Amino acid sequence: MKKYKNKINRIRSFALSLIFIGFVIMYGAIFFRENQILVILFMSLGLICIIGSTAVYGWIGLLSTRAVQVVCPNCQRHTKVLGRVDMCMYCNEPLTLDPALEGKEFSESYNSKRN
Ligand SMILES: [Zn+2]
User: Fold this and answer.
1) Global pTM?
2) Domain boundaries defined on the chain
3) InterPro entries, from UniProt (predicted)?
């Protein structure tokens, strides 16, 4: 079975990994310090990753304001639901905003417009 995670959490971990990738690429520039062009190339690539990550973080902030805050029935904590179906941020309980989908097996395909 495929593992689902809360969308906001997923984007957040993506942004975090982008920062790490950016730093690793910048660190890689050390190995090419004899070649100035490569150093500049690696440095700017790393910088682009970090700038991209900042942009993703800004995007999360924007999404968070549009997400619906609900109380998870499983762990009683406040979590944010993005789209028609999403998982709880803390216990991965599947949550839905659509009463028609209640009780059905969780599928991310419910979020696509065709369904
Ligand atoms: Zn929960």
Assistant:
1) 0.78
2) 1-66, 68-115
3) UPF0295
